[in-house]
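Example 3.
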Amino acid sequence: GAVVSQHPSRVICKSGTSVKIECRSLDFQATTMFWYRQFPKQSLMLMATSNEGSKATYEQGVEKDKFLINHASLTLSTLTVTSAHPEDSSFYICSANMVRGRQFFGPGTRLTVL
Amino acid sequence: QQQVKQSPQSLIVQKGGISIINCAYENTAFDYFPWYQQFPGKGPALLIAIRPDVSEKKEGRFTISFNKSAKQFSLHIMDSQPGDSATYFCAARVGETSGSRLTFGEGTQLTVNP
């Protein structure tokens, strides 16, 4: 089946540093990818929609300068958390839609900001 | 505004029993209703999905029942096993283009006791 990968799977960083998370569709082309954030025991919260070759669309309340998204190719989208702070610690998950709309999720990235 | 409401929040079932999770939606434009299974520290995995032109879909031990007039759908897990212990999310979406976004329910934490 279709696979979406994420790298890294977990990252620990110091407050004030920037962290980049990669999301790749391994066996299909994804013109659109989605980035979610999930807190413990909560549902997935859509942060932004990443479109290949154009600017990302951010959900209300998500700081676009804080969470930089780049969709450089049909198989790669990146999320950069800039000047990370402890409140940015969370589980970040990307996903992509295949043909006929089946949406596949990556394994997630656990970010811990000290 | 929570467009997809899921219940119960948590569910404990004995091995071999039937697990039932319910979801209700508001947006009548939704035309795709998937269920996702998520284990701790992992991304959600598509379990089963239904479109509103059918009232039931079965895949192995998993069945979706769909009631269009009531705007409700449910997941039934037959012969529940300890390995089914996970968090389950219902979702809904309008359309099946690459940019179609999912609206998630709040999630149900299922525990199947041996």
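DSSP finds no helices and eleven strands in chain A. The interface with chain B takes residues 4, 6, 30-32, 34, 41-44, 46, 49, 51, 91, 93, 95, 97, 100-108, 110 of chain A (CB under 8 Å).
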